[in-house]
Design a protein that fits this description.
Keywords: Iron, Iron-sulfur, Metal-binding. With about 280 residues, the chain is of the alpha/beta class. It has helices at about 15-25, 40-45, 75, 100-105, 145-150, 170-175, 190-205, 225-230, 245-250, 265-280, and strands spanning about 1-5, 30-35, 50-65, 85, 90, 110-125, 130-135, 160-165, 180-185, 210-215, 235-240. The strands form two sheets. It has a nine-stranded mixed sheet, with helices on both faces. A two-stranded antiparallel sheet has the order 4-5. It is elongated.
Length: about 280
């Protein structure tokens, strides 16, 4: 089973849920996959040993000036404005290139070939029974979905997999949560939390992914999130009250599991509840 953990915005508690859910599943063959490639931080709590690294590349077009006639077909086909012409000379803006290969495919002179450009890295390690995988986008790069895809290529579906998705509801989040069996949405009981939750719900319904809601810091804020979930018949699968001890552990890079009593059973029960919902 593959479970993704998402939230409409950062700072809601997504990493806390993903990490502690993984650590609560003792005795299982498990993968924790951090797809928040712009700012991965699960490793702070997991502390995996001996990270193995693999670079992530995307194709980058290169033009053979001896063959190019400056016809502009490559510029016209590029949907990302990564190619332009200056006095019939082709200019490529590599930061805008998505590596789709369209320019090379449609070039009538076959003047465009492809080289590769490194945009990030996949890191893999282990801690106890847990395989840990994370992506890291290079500083200054804008295209995180290719790195997320490279991270997800390492998923072993014979194991229980927990994916920590990026915050928000844009392309990187969709790339992280798609093809998962269940998505846990972490939110907080505030107007901002409700707004982002609604966007997440619309995204997951469009993707046809089963989901449930965890309300973090459930004893503060207002009743808007609870009312919305009740109205939309969305299951609230866990409520975590505000606890200064959890905040203190987080600030020191320590997980709840193993450091705060009672939460092993809470997260184990959460997994069992998700498993039951996936089984139908």
């Amino acid at each position: 089973m593959i479970i993704s953990v998402a939230s409409g915005k950062g700072g809601t508690g997504k990493t806390t849920i993903a990490v502690n859910l993984a650590l609560s599943l003792k005795g299982r063959q498990l993968q924790l996959v951090d797809c928040d490639v712009e700012e991965p931080n699960d490793h702070i709590f997991i502390k995996p040993k001996k990270l193995k690294k693999e670079p992530v590349y995307i194709p980058l077009p290169q033009v053979d000036d001896r063959k190019c006639t400056g016809c502009g077909r490559c510029r016209d086909i590029c949907q990302f404005n990564a190619i332009t012409l200056l006095n019939k000379n082709v200019l490529i803006f590599q930061e805008l290139c998505h590596g789709c290969g369209g320019c090379a495919y449609f070039c009538p002179q076959k003047a465009i070939s492809e080289t590769k450009r490194e945009i990030g890295v996949v890191e893999m390690g282990r801690q106890g029974n847990l395989d840990f995988i994370q992506g890291r986008l290079n500083i200054g790069e804008a295209l995180s979905p290719p790195v997320i895809r490279a991270v997800k290529d390492k998923i072993d579906r014979s194991k229980t997999v927990i994916i920590d998705a990026p915050p928000g509801t844009s392309c990187p989040v969709i790339e992280a949560v798609k093809n998962t069996d269940f998505c846990v949405m972490v939110t907080e009981p505030t107007p901002f939390g409700l707004n982002d939750l609604i966007l997440c719900v619309e995204m997951l319904r469009e993707l046809k992914i089963n989901f449930g809601v965890i309300i973090n810091r459930s004893d503060i804020g207002d009743s808007g999130v609870e009312d919305y979930c009740r109205r939309e018949e969305i299951p609230v699968i866990l409520r975590i009250p505000f606890d200064r001890k959890i905040a203190s552990l987080y600030s020191r890079g320590l997980p709840i599991i193993g450091n705060l009593s009672g939460y092993d059973d809470i997260f184990s029960d959460l997994y069992n509840k998700i498993e039951g919902m996936v089984a139908g």
